[in-house]
Amino acid sequence: MYSSQELMDSLHKMGIQPGDIFAFEAPSTRPADWEGGFESLLSSLQLLAGPAGTVIVPTCTYHEGYPKPVFDPDLTPSECGEFSEFFRSRPGAIRSHNPTHSVSGIGLEAATITGQHRAAYGRPSPWGDGSLGINSPYDVLYEQNAWWVMLDTDLADDPFIHYVQAVFTQKNQGVTRRTPFAGFDPHKLMAHLEKTGLVQVFTFHDSRVRLLRVQDSVAYALQFLQDHLDELDPTPETAAWLRAVSQIRSRGYLQAGAARIAITPPVPCRRWEGRLLTGVYRDLMARAVVFSHSDIKTALVVCDLLGISASLVAQIRRKAHELTGIRPERIQVACTHSHSTPDTVGAGFEDPVYLAFLVEQVAQAILAADRRLQPVRIGTSKVPIRGIAHSRRRKLKDGTAYTTRYGVPSSWRVKPELVASEGTIDPELSVVRIETLDGKAVAGISNFACHASIALMSSNLSGDFLGEAMALLETVLGPESVFLCTNGAAANVDPTLEVPFWGPRNDESARHLGTIFAAQVLEAFERIECSDEVCLDSVQEKVDLPVRPDWVELVEHEQERIQAEISKGWTFSASVLETARSKVLHTEVQALRLNDLVLVSFPGEIFAEAGQALKQAYPQIGIAVVELANDTVGYIPTHQAFEEGGYEVARNLWGRITPDSADRLVDAAHIAIERTLP
User: What is the DSSP letter of 442?
Assistant: First the structure.
């Protein structure tokens, strides 16, 4: 049996004086342990504090595993041992109002210490922001540098340790996207505090007593955790956080900047096939995002264009490199494949003045994005799309295939008994969120495979449904945000699930479809949780593709027929004539690694089947196929498509490459992807 006065004498000798504030914990003690029971212990504590002092006892209720009644400071029993419950029920004891970490006080400052607990805030913990928060009793004890007495306490379940964890967590908010509640071995931390002398330890009979000053001990503990948390057996979640912090301190945050600029030509102008465009439904835009981390800086641009020639991309890269220093092979220029745009693919209707303007504007967009570099975090998501896309290829029972096209009415209403199966689409929508360290959206990237041809018959310039979607997303996310909607493996995929094959193919249909698409992108974007992980890379693989002999013959001998078929006054572009002469296309595949997603760009319109096969080859990482990037070589059909027939493999200006070209490009894609993997 213990003498409470003997304990008080020891505490007095070690520093506690009348008029002081001190917390007292004895969770395992029982009335029978003390001469005179708990009444004697309480009297001794009050005598030690004196009339001007205050005794605080934790009366916490944070044990979990079963539901509890609503907390009532007057009725809810303490879970901190028998003495704690005895203390809180004494006349004159004032208990703070908090459902997990309440304390009770008796003495001059009891009301001040306990009174603001219900309104405490701003310090995250597993028990909410207020339990150990600003203005909580623990904060008051800290500010007063009160004493804290621990008699045989369990450090693994102790409110003083909880307070240290909470303050440390609060002070490290913002270093990473989410700071976990610091988990570590509290006994090791206490051993360091004892070694410094900040925690005095003595034996009271067969019990171990610790005595400390709250502010002094917490300040030291916080600094020790800041410098040596890895030495305290951190929990797996805390250890992962430490690794992220270490990477940030050694290599910095990922940097990103985004910008957009108008690339609208003056009207009237000629479309890629000679059709006259006389108005502007919505300005064409070039949208750029620049990423930088360690020694890698890379740029992705998405243009509201049908496609872009390799020669234009080379000029853009050269100019952007001069302005920003970004290596040319790390600049990716992709197009949405909007059909209501001027000729930028060498189809014979190029305007040299506009092309020079285009090169300058795209380079300026990259420069503007580079100048806006700031610390960011990114996250990615993959979700199935709802509606929108429909395969435009159907396989007949005789083994052949046909392509449903707007300009071929006979393909709209084929007898059902002749059709064996529908073609393939890729329903996967990939989305990237780029946000500031405080969570504000900087930019977004989406990838989905579908022809941007819903405004095909409009006489206005527009970015089609993807241009509408990007404009809407930027309106929702804020005027400084930039959204890049890349097109996927869409060679054989049309936007005809929302409108009939025969239309209307106009601006209103593009607005309608763009709104539906933007809504799904926005939902995925808002659900993304960004990560502190940084894995950035950009690689390029060169590929040479032989051209089809019948395409060369088309160029060499049938200009008159093409003029009649496409437009009067049409002439081949210099790039087309050079390809016909050399009989080879020098092109490329590019891979951009953004954490757990690789954007793989192809220089033409690749089939959905090839894109899906590429994704399935890498289950360990997300793959997004970006078509019509860095060049426009025409359709990239599969071997099966060549065997089945259809518009994409027919003899036309866009059917340039041989049946093995898809294999060559996919092989290059594999090499590029694997170069970005660890």
Answer: E
> Vertex 611, ends 609 and 613: CA angle to 5°?
70
Tokens of 347: 């189809």
d(CA 602, CA 611): 10
Q: At what angle do helices 549-557 and 574-582 cross, to 10 degrees?
A: 130
Q: What is the pLDDT of residues 473-528, one digit of tens each?
A: 999 999 999 999 999 999 999 998 788 878 899 999 999 999 999 999 999 999 99
Q: What string of H, E and C letters represents the secondary structure of 164-189?
A: HHHHHHHHCECCECCCCCCCCCHHHH
45-52: long-range pairs with CB below 8 Å, 24+: 45/4, 45/8, 46/106, 46/107, 47/8, 48/8, 48/11, 48/12, 48/16, 48/18, 48/22, 49/18, 49/19, 49/20, 49/21, 49/22, 49/107, 50/18, 50/19, 51/18, 51/108, 52/18, 52/19, 52/108
DSSP alpha helix (H) spans, 549-631: 549-557, 559-566, 574-582, 608-616
Tell me how far CA of residue 655 lies from CA of 18, 546, 549, 646, 665, in angstroms: 95, 12, 11, 11, 16
Angstrom distance (rounded) from CA 485 to CA 518: 10
Instruction: List pLDDT tens digits, range 83-109.
Output: 999 999 999 999 999 999 999 999 999
DSSP state of 33: G
CA-closest candidate to residue 292, choices 174, 364, 376: 376
Does the pTM exceed 0.85?
yes
The answer for residues whose C-beta is within 8 angstroms of residue 582's C-beta and 6 or more apart is none
